[in-house]
Amino acid sequence: MKRFLFFLLILMAVSANAAVRLPRLISSNMVLQRADTARIWGWADAGETVTVRFLKKTYSATADDQGRWIVLIPTTQKKMVGGPYTMQINDLQLTDVYVGDVWLCSGQSNMDLHTARLVDLYQQEFKTYSNPAIHLVQLARNPTAEGPKDDVDGHGGFYAWEPLSPEKVGHWSGISYFYAKAMYEATGVPQGIINASMGGSDIVAWCSNAVLEQQAPRYLADMSHLRTPGYLQRNAEINRAVGQAYSRIYEEQDPGLKEQWMNPDFDDSGWETVNQYDQNIGDENGRTWKGSLWFRKTFNVADSLCGREALLRLGCLVDADVCYINGRKVGEIGYQYPPRKYVLAADVLRPGRNVLCIRLKTNGSRDKFVRDKAYKIIFPDDRSQRGQDLMGLTSGKDEIDLEGQYRMHRGVMMPGQPGVEGVNNGKASALYDNMIHPLLNYRISGILWYQGETNAGKPEEYYKLLPAMITDWRKSFGNVPAVIFSLANHMGRHNDPNYGGGWARLRESQRRSVNDLDRAAFVTMIGLGEWNDIHPLNKKEAARRCALQMRSLRGEKLSSEGPAYESVRFEGNKAIVTFRDGTDRLSVVPAHEELTSQGRIKTDGKQILGFKIAGADRRWQWAVARIIDRVVDGKTVGQEIELTADGVQNPVAVRYAWDDDPIATLCGENGLPAVPFTTEQKY
Fold first, then answer.
1. Taking each helix axis from N to C terminus, what angle separates 459-477 and 502-516, rounded to the nearest 10 degrees?
2. What is the mean pLDDT of residues 92-109?
3. 393 CB-near residues (< 8 Å, 6+ apart)
4. CB proximity list for 360: less than 8 A, separation 6 or greater
5. Pair type for strands 599-603 and 375-379
6. Based on the number of CB atoms within 10 Å of its own CB, is 443 exposed (0-12), middle (13-18) or buried (19 or more)?
7. Which among 330, 482, 506, 518 has the fewest CB atoms less than 10 Å away?
8. Which of 19, 10, 23 is nearest to 67 (CA)?
9. Helix residue spans in 517-566 (DSSP H)
């Protein structure tokens, strides 16, 4: 009888736990929004009573006919801020629950970029900093065509709520990490980050159907047939089979693999000699090569350097690579963006002659080796450095240069991988349904949005969608502040003042979107980008600028942004630009050197560069700019910019920092850069 009762009690406990189910967002280590009404929700048997015990108070709800329930917990008392606390939900116990500020960080790859990619700048900080009051939940990056979901996906890169520690930080978003740290230092309260971001995603994927119906209905028609029962599953099977066949043929028919071209003793004397940065490497009959290209380079290693671990840095390669040294594979990466950093074991390098071999899979890009990146082997000065500790090495006393000429030979020519339609991160609502809709019950303190690279060719459409998307999200989250990151400076710099890049137009769409929104601010990323890398590393300064803007939106009195355009007037051959109150104390960016597509360019810290003016013919000329006092009713109330240009007698329009990678030297007295802009209505 005792044994029977024991098993009966176990069965009853299991049944009770099974009856109450929580969304993945409601779990141990979560952070609840302070000064609000937290929502705890989930599912149970219809009619079941759910009891939540938190901070010595009890809250109850009854599951409805669909089994849904929700409990509201006021978090308005200041003494509630902190943790860790325990929460009891029927027989489920959640531990290490905090009350503080919660932030939704969303966008594409620059929001998603992990701290593991930032170790060149911040390795020591990542290795040593921990904070049990800063928590992150990383959502899975899985687009869906199935419509709005009740819960986030538990696969595809999902990480449940976890505290900040060196052991976990590698998969944390860099922006999220530095932002949470900055806000914690400013407020002293726990910080929670919900990172909902996916590389390469289009803004339409983050918009609800309701937004797209109003602003861009053509995308919805493209989604309807994907919901036909079985269609996506069949397509996935086809793509899987095609991918397997494509990969098999690629490997089986590449002569470099058959003939072992990576072998250090292979005779490559008949191969072409190329400069690694040539734009026509591998071309045949004027056509860029698609398929595998093999590169070999011989280098010498001193006896004293052998027997030591080292780091092989091969910049960035386009598109996928496998690298060998002396016939031994030392690393591989399957797409173009990540930096190639491969740790070499102590027995890889030999005294004297060594051979580096790169098998590069290219899809037809002109670039194979990205310029202005490091191509070398670095030996640590500190011989105690080992393994992954080497990944942050950027220089050392002992280095082997790998730039310059390589031997090259064509491997197998391949078409682009064929495939059939599937759901991806560019489809209507595909990420909203799976990554935003399941969050709408959660209370947050604000929104951080860093996205736009994918939409740089559609600035007019972006201007329609971004304000509408933020407004739509706020219907559930409340009128929380939103901070929008601009596109950083990137790609080419142009001497022609009439050049108008897609990135400049997209930045203008972002700026105007912020102006149209209540409680919104703009983070200017000018000066933080890298011309040859779409993923700039200086995420710490980007997050600092964001934190300043968010704190200002929340009511703090501080200097949070650089000069922000307000108006322009024209007086004869002059254009005079006025900036918003509080941003009109003007200065010049200190003298510095910029690495651009045109090489290294120095600024003198005196000239204001980056302004253009045009007359009625809309032919732009570089302008001479000078700071003048702004006088109202006989009193100096700020400063303005006066612009003139040879050949423009009657200017009608002004542009500033209008390029993909603009030259821009205007800043505020606080050192923050001026916001790029155009005075034209149509841009």
1. 30
2. 98
3. 311, 313, 378, 380, 385
4. 292, 293, 294, 295, 317, 318, 319, 320, 321, 368
5. unpaired
6. buried
7. 518
8. 19
9. 539-553
Count of beta carbons in the 10 Å neighbourhood of residue 401: 10
Q: pLDDT at position 13, please?
A: 43
User: Are 97 and 55 within 8 A, CB to CB?
Assistant: no
CA–CA gap between residue 291 and residue 443 (Å, rounded):
49
Phi and psi at 105, nearest 5°, equal -105, 115
Q: Which domains does the chain have, with CATH numbers?
A: 99-208+429-560 (3.40.50.1110), 268-413 (2.60.120.260), 562-683 (no CATH)
Tell me phi and psi for residue 245, to 5 degrees: -65, -40
Average pLDDT of every residue of the chain: 96
In the chain, the amino acid numbered 81 is V
Which residue type, as a one-letter code, is found at position 41? W
Q: What's the CA gap between 618 and 613, in Å, rounded?
A: 9
Per-residue confidence (pLDDT) for residue 17, from 0 to 100: 46
Residue type at 667? C
CA dist 274 → 281, 293, 294, 405 (Å): 7, 12, 11, 5
Burial class (CB in 10 A: 0-12, 13-18, 19+), 542: buried
Structure-token pair, residue 621:
């000329």
- Cα separation, 90 vs 358, in Å, equals 59
Residue 5 has pLDDT above 50, yes or no: no
pLDDT, position 286: 87
φ, ψ of residue 648 to 5 degrees: the values are: -120, 95
In the structure encoding, which two tokens stand for residue 579, read together?
Answer: 């900036």
Residues in the chain: 683
Number of helices (H), then strands (E), belonging to the chain: the values are 12, 35
Mean pLDDT within 642-667: 97
Percent of the chain with pLDDT over 90: 95
* pLDDT tens digits, 474-490: 999 999 999 999 999 99
Name the pLDDT band for 500 (thresholds 50, 70, 90).
confident
* Residue range 200-217: mean pLDDT, rounded: 98
pLDDT at residue number 383: 87
Residue 591: per-residue pLDDT: 97
- Please give the DSSP secondary-structure letter assigned to residue 578: E
Within a 10 A sphere around the Cβ of 196, how many other Cβ atoms? 25
Beta-sheet pairing, 92-107 with 191-197: parallel
The answer to pTM > 0.90 is yes
The C-alpha atoms of residue 553 and residue 483 are separated, in whole angstroms, by 9
| DSSP letters for 587-607 | EEPPSEEEEETTEEEEE-SS-
- Is residue 586 within 8 Å of 665, Cβ to Cβ? no
Return the percentage of the chain with pLDDT > 70, whole number. Answer: 97
**pLDDT value at residue 6:** 46
Give SS3 for 183.
Answer: helix
What's the pLDDT band for 3 if we cut at 50, 70, 90? low
pLDDT of residue 1: 46
SS (H, E, C) 231-287: HHHHHHHHHHHHHHHHHHHHHHCCHHHHCCCCCCCCCCCCCEEEECCCCCCCCECCE
DSSP secondary structure letter of residue 469: H
Give the model confidence (pLDDT) of 282-306 as tens digits.
Answer: 999 889 999 999 999 999 999 999 9
pLDDT(261) > 50:
yes
